Amino acid sequence: MDGHWPGTGRVATRRVVSRLCMTGLLLWYGLMAAAAQPDDPEAYHRVVRTGSLVMSVDGGHLYLIAREFGERAKILRYDLASGKREVLVDEVDGNVDAAFPDDQQRRLAYTADTVGDERYRLHIVDIADGSYRVPTPRDRLDVTCGFSHDGRYVYAARGAHIWGEKALIRIDARTGETQNVLSIPGANLYCAGVSDDDRRLLVKRYLSNTAWQLGLLDVESGQLRWLIAAPGENLRSVTFNGRYIYFLSDREGGQMALWRHSDAAGFERVALPIDSELLSFVMNRAGHLGVAYRGPLYPLVALLRADDDGHWRRIEVPTGDARLTDVTLAQDAAERIVVVTEDGRPPRIGVFEGGVLTTLMNTDRTGLSDRDFARFESRLVESFDGTAIPTHLLLPAAATSATPFPMVVYVHGGPQDHIDPLYAPNLQRLANAGFVVVLPNVRGSSGFGSAFMDLDNGDWGGGHIRDLLAVAEYAAGLDLVAGRPRFVMGTSFGGYSVLSLISQYPDAFDGAVDLFGMSDLGAFFDGLTDQVRPEFVSELGFDPSVDPERARAMSPLYQASRIETPLQIHQGIHDPRVPASQSQAMVAELKRRGIPVEYHEYDEGHGFVYAENDTLARERIIGFLRRLAGPRLPGD
Prior knowledge:
636 residues; Rossmann fold; 10 helices; 15% helix; disordered N terminus
């Protein structure tokens, strides 16, 4: 599973995004790419993948992780006045995450996972000479919080498993010496911020995906005071700003809103000119606020500024036909803001200053024309019970009513996750290989309100599977889409959904691809850490250890005899979320019954990090689908 499970290793930086960066989607949503022309199967992948955008406190520099196609990651620094680029860290192996400088710009910290087991190890780099140290023990992982404002320390949460118990630590940035500052037996703790005077830490304790405790820790005395105690609240984007602590919560019931807390005033709701549910935010001391909020079909991003009366007003960013998808703020910069925009093609990073938006980096290296890019259309599709399913269609230009393309329904992971109409090289490749790609956010998806997200609780393998059938039928009725053949694929929980679907409805699709999906819910539950088992029980509606027969009935492994749909399965052998044994057991059972299955394992984790494995898996999937489509595929 992926998405909103805790401890994904994402640093709380001063930026807001309209999408969630998900480990489980790196394979088929964020990393892959390809081509409109058969002589260049990597064209759509020739983009610069960027992440962890962070501005220096004064707004003079932008730090980011960048990975050119076929190359290892680099950590870059841009001088925003001149546009000059420096490579601070070159050729970083594996999956790199959470890069950020100290306030003095003397040191840089980042985490990296070179295996795929999500044991991210902290690296502290001296910017002047490039020397570095790695204080994380080999059998541990660090989820970073940030530097102290004096630059002396890095704060992080340290544990052995991404979903397991973690303690808060303080690491000397010069020597790497580590000190434990807070541990609670059995608790999964995270640091959410450091106060301006470096005396207090914001502490989050995971109880469930929608329940967190929030506390203040005096670093020197070790005294912890809970501001929000058990049973917790649904908290997001917790941060210090001046004398207040700001955060998103649904503490009044209903939708997520912006709140703040101070000892003098207590809890106060912050009034914003946005009526929709908030998804994330960033703010700075200079009076700017970036907010991602829920639209009917996908997240939207707004930039706000406080006026003299303390009211928040919108600032219009001149993005033209593109959509604002990301805002990065510097703590003390009143005018200079870094933004990301997208229009269906690879994104652009720009600097917004003095009312003018200037491009800093165009990530497009494809060399393709506008027509070569498939374009998104987003719609609400009515499901079997009248529930509206937010759905995105990726339509190749070559698909017409005269030459309709077969569909591939892609199911995201989670289930508390969602997919947005943002540039994804892998999906572009799939579309331009001859398919209309259908991207539903079935019931249980995040980003569309808590009521929608809870619709699948106690109903795994039920309503969300019927949503997929309804969306496929809707797509089949469109002029650009062929009724048959039709295909389905999914990652993680989406992989489970694929297996569940084809075991219940063996004739509904003509081919299926499962990427690291669960097949045996009982065995999966047995392998979970104690910290996340209650969340899984809440999702399922029962405890598999108490009712194993019910778990068997919901597990595709034990319904394998009903599978007739041609099936391809992909699995990373280092996966810490969905163990390889889940796919291996499914393959063994299918083979035992004489049911054909194509199976591929990779030296990867929960999704692909290395380009060679990514390319191999992508082309295997496309080849599998094209073979099944046969001569009916346009262009054949």
